[in-house]
Write a structure and sequence with these properties.
The chain is mainly α. It has eight helices and no strands.
Length: about 150
């Protein structure tokens, strides 16, 4: 692991929410690295500041890899209602950013639908529904509320 990545991993435990947000953004491309994945999951479930949850979810959705979306799905399984709402908001922000993000997240959800972990499959199904919600919004119709 490079020194730069180690520094970002350390920043993720900062008492400053702004540093944790920055760490989430910078670590998102490394979601497939076990040490980064563990830290990212913690940032998604940050109990001190919802901005960390929201912006880490957005960064992971923009990364769009199966590893990144898997972390969001795992976080959904552990999240309380408030955290789940902010996870949804972060993913929603990324999905509305461009069709490309929506398509890669949907593809990752399709891949995760066959994951061995049931919590990942459930979370991926929920995220997949979000991609459909934003597809309808992009066409001028559809409800953007979090599915129940």
């Amino acid at each position: 692991m490079s020194g730069g990545l180690e520094a970002v991993l350390a920043e993720a435990s900062s008492p400053l929410w702004t540093q944790r947000v920055r760490a989430g953004r910078e670590l998102a491309p490394y979601a497939d690295v076990p040490e980064a994945g563990d830290v990212l999951l913690g940032l998604l479930l940050d109990v001190e500041d919802t901005a960390v949850t929201r912006q880490t979810a957005e960064a992971l959705a923009r990364a769009g890899t199966a590893a990144a979306v898997r972390l969001i799905a795992l976080a959904l399984a552990e999240a309380d209602d408030n955290q789940a709402d902010w996870l949804h908001t972060g993913v929603h922000d990324a999905l509305l950013g461009s069709d490309g993000v929506r398509d890669v997240v949907a593809a990752a959800c399709g891949e995760l639908a066959r994951d061995q972990d049931e919590a990942v499959r459930r979370g991926a199904a929920e995220i997949s529904a979000w991609t459909e919600d934003t597809r309808g919004a992009a066409l001028g119709h559809g409800d953007l509320t979090r599915p129940s």
